[in-house]
Automatic annotation (TrEMBL):
<keyword id="KW-1133">Transmembrane helix</keyword>
<feature type="transmembrane region" description="Helical">
    <location>
        <begin position="196"/>
        <end position="218"/>
    </location>
</feature>
<dbReference type="InterPro" id="IPR013604">
    <property type="entry name" value="7TM_chemorcpt"/>
</dbReference>
<dbReference type="Pfam" id="PF08395">
    <property type="entry name" value="7tm_7"/>
</dbReference>
<dbReference type="GO" id="GO:0050909">
    <property type="term" value="P:sensory perception of taste"/>
</dbReference>
<comment type="function">
    <text>Gustatory receptor which mediates acceptance or avoidance behavior, depending on its substrates.</text>
</comment>
<keyword id="KW-0675">Receptor</keyword>
<keyword id="KW-0812">Transmembrane</keyword>
<keyword id="KW-0807">Transducer</keyword>
<comment type="similarity">
    <text>Belongs to the insect chemoreceptor superfamily. Gustatory receptor (GR) family.</text>
</comment>
<keyword id="KW-0472">Membrane</keyword>
<dbReference type="GO" id="GO:0007165">
    <property type="term" value="P:signal transduction"/>
</dbReference>
<feature type="transmembrane region" description="Helical">
    <location>
        <begin position="160"/>
        <end position="184"/>
    </location>
</feature>
<dbReference type="GO" id="GO:0005886">
    <property type="term" value="C:plasma membrane"/>
</dbReference>
<protein>
    <recommendedName>
        <fullName>Gustatory receptor</fullName>
    </recommendedName>
</protein>
<feature type="transmembrane region" description="Helical">
    <location>
        <begin position="275"/>
        <end position="292"/>
    </location>
</feature>
<feature type="transmembrane region" description="Helical">
    <location>
        <begin position="98"/>
        <end position="117"/>
    </location>
</feature>
């Protein structure tokens, strides 16, 4: 049991380091694809502006909130990493310190960029859903914009951010949470004077918030995308044009067979239910380790 615990803790530590490295490298390889996605989203946004839809100005408030969250997240990363480096300066070289700061900052930036991008696409789908029952513009126009945004969302989760999100945003964060709770909070090396206590709590809180934010955004996006079926049904009840009614029925049939799931790389489902399952596994492992440690 002791060997298994050591193996799991070492794996958690290595996964947290590999996750930071993958976030940086993967982002460079798919930079061109991300640029094409952003160009498509910008085109859809311009179409919404030309249609003079309601609610476009609300995104300004979302941008300011998101920018504030990014600044706080990066500041916490830099401050905690700097304090940790100062405590270990006698054990680390300058090159090691620079690598640690760069990897932590890049992982934080990559995570915030992904959350902003997903939130932006969710907002676009929300605007489209709100405009369909209004009957102000042609239904096919909103349908085409909706399909473009969904394709961008699939591309982002499938290739551009698929592996970094699984390994870095989920795997590395969960691994650091387990490693921090077990190694620094429950069973620290120095039981009398633990210099890592405050940093460990800050680090644990930040990683936990990141995981919760990711799963919350994924769950909200999935619900907003699937709300399209309800919106189309409401439009069909008030629509009198037979041609448009047929379009709605065809699109509803297509939506019925293409129920959207917020998945990363086609294999990791991100919603609140999966978050509870992941939390139960992590908590169960920690409880078993604590009981084993106390009965040893």
């Amino acid at each position: 049991m002791t060997e298994l615990t050591s193996l799991i803790l070492i794996s958690c530590y290595e996964l947290s380091f590999i996750g930071r490295f993958i976030c940086k490298i993967w982002r460079i390889f798919f930079d061109n694809s991300l640029s094409m996605v952003l160009t498509t989203l910008e085109t859809v946004h311009e179409k919404l502006i030309r249609l003079n839809v309601d609610g476009l100005k609300k995104i300004k408030n979302i941008n300011w909130i998101s920018i504030f969250i990014i600044i706080v997240n990066i500041m916490v990363i830099i401050i905690t990493t700097t304090i940790w480096i100062i405590m270990h300066k006698h054990m680390l070289d300058i090159i090691d310190m620079v690598i640690i700061v760069v990897l932590n900052t890049c992982q934080c930036f990559c995570f915030c960029e992904y959350i902003l991008l997903i939130s932006y696409m969710k907002w676009m789908i929300y605007i489209i859903n709100e405009q369909i029952p209004e009957r102000k513009s042609c239904l096919s126009t909103f349908r085409d914009m909706y399909l473009e945004v969904i394709e961008c969302l699939h591309q982002v989760n499938r290739s551009i951010y698929g592996v970094p999100a699984i390994v870095g945003f989920i795997g590395a964060n969960v691994a650091e949470i387990i490693f921090t709770i077990y190694g620094y909070l429950l069973f620290p090396r120095d039981y009398i004077n633990d210099p890592y206590l405050v940093i460990s709590f800050i680090w644990l809180l930040m990683r936990t918030v990141n995981v919760i934010v990711l799963y919350t955004v994924g769950d909200a996006t999935e619900k907003e995308v699937n709300r399209m079926s309800l919106v189309l049904h409401q439009r069909s009840l008030i629509e009198k044009n037979p041609r448009i009614k047929r379009q709605i029925k065809c699109f509803l049939l297509r939506r019925l067979h293409e129920h959207f799931h917020f998945e990363l790389y086609g294999m990791c489902h991100v919603n609140i239910r999966q978050l509870f399952s992941l939390s139960n596994i992590a908590i169960g492992y920690l409880v078993i380790q604590v009981l084993f440690k106390l009965n040893k």
